[in-house]
Amino acid sequence: MFILKRQDVEITSVQHPKRDQQIPILNYQGQTFRLISVFRANQEEEAKAFWRDLTDNRGKACVLLEEPERYSVWGKIRLDQLTSDVPGDAKTIALTQACLLLLQGVYIDIEDLLGGRQAGLFEKNLAEILQQWRFPQADSPQAVKNLLTIDPLSANQLPPWEEHHVITLLQELYRLGKQYFGNSSFVSRAMETLQDLPAADQAQFTEWLNQSPLGKLWQ
C-alpha cells in the first residue's frame, strides 16, 4: 500500500484481551494497522522486500513506516476484531516455542564450542537486543537468563511475545551467530533443536519460516 513517515501517522496502543500487555496500533486516514515486523535503520532493502512480498505476492494490506532509527511493517486490522479476540494465539505460542529452542540451541553451541566467556558475552549482547527492541519480560539480567534456561515446551513459562518479536529476535540471533562463529555453520545445529516440538508445531513453524525473509537465513 504505502510507505509512510512518522509524521504521517498516529501510533497508539490497545490492551491485549488475553495477556497483560499493550498492542501497538498505527492509525492512518481512519484505518488501523497492527505491527508485523521491525527492521534496523540499515535494513532498508530487507524491510522493503518483506513489505512488497506481503502486498504484491500475498495480497495483504500493509504499510511500511520509515523512521530515522528503524523501519517497521504494519498489517491492516479492524479494532473490533482485535479487541474481541486475537487470532493466531496458538500459532504465536508455537512460534515463540520454536524461537526459544533456536535461541537456546545457539547459546549452548557457543558455550560448548567457544567457552563460558563467549557464552557470557552472548548473554550480554542478547540482553542489549531485547532491551533495545523493548521485548516484554526481558528487562533484567535474570529475565534474560530465564529465557536461556526455561523449558520452551511449557506454555505457562513462555514470555508474552507477538509474531513481530519472534521475527526480530530470529533476525538478531542470526546476526549474532555469524558474529560469534564467523559463518552460518551454527544454523543447521540450532535447527536440530526443533525436533523437540510436536510434529504439527514443527511443520507450522517451518512453513511460516519459509514464507518469510528469515527462511533465507535459517536453512
Descriptive terms for the model:
219 residues, alpha+beta
Folded structure, characterized:
- This protein has 219 residues and is of the alpha+beta class.
- It is 50% helix and 18% strand.
- The chain contains eight helices and six strands.
- Strands 1-5-6-4-3-2 form a six-stranded mixed β-sheet.
- Strand 5 and strand 6 form a beta hairpin.
- Helix 3 runs parallel beside helix 6, helix 3 packs across helix 8 and helix 4 runs antiparallel to helix 6.
- The longest helix is centred in the middle third of the chain and has 26 residues.
Could you write a compact summary of the structure shown?
With 219 residues, the protein is of the alpha+beta class.
Number of helices: 8
Quaternary structure annotation: single chain
How many β-strand stretches?
6
Low-confidence stretches: none
Elements, N to C (H/E): EEEEHEEHHHHHHH
Secondary-structure-based class equals alpha+beta
Strand order of the largest sheet: 1-5-6-4-3-2
* Main sheet summary: 6 strands, mixed
* Broad shape: globular
Distance N terminus to C terminus? 30 Å
Helix content: 40-55%
Mean pLDDT: 87
Q: Specify Rg, calculated over alpha carbons.
A: 17 Å
**Hey, roughly how much beta strand do the residues contain?**
15-25%
Secondary structure topology:
Elements: E1 2-5, E2 10-15, E3 22-28, E4 31-40, H1 44-57, E5 62-66, E6 70-76, H2 79-84, H3 89-114, H4 116-132, H5 141-149, H6 163-181, H7 186-191, H8 199-210
Parallel strand pairs: 1-5
Antiparallel strand pairs: 2-3, 3-4, 4-6, 5-6
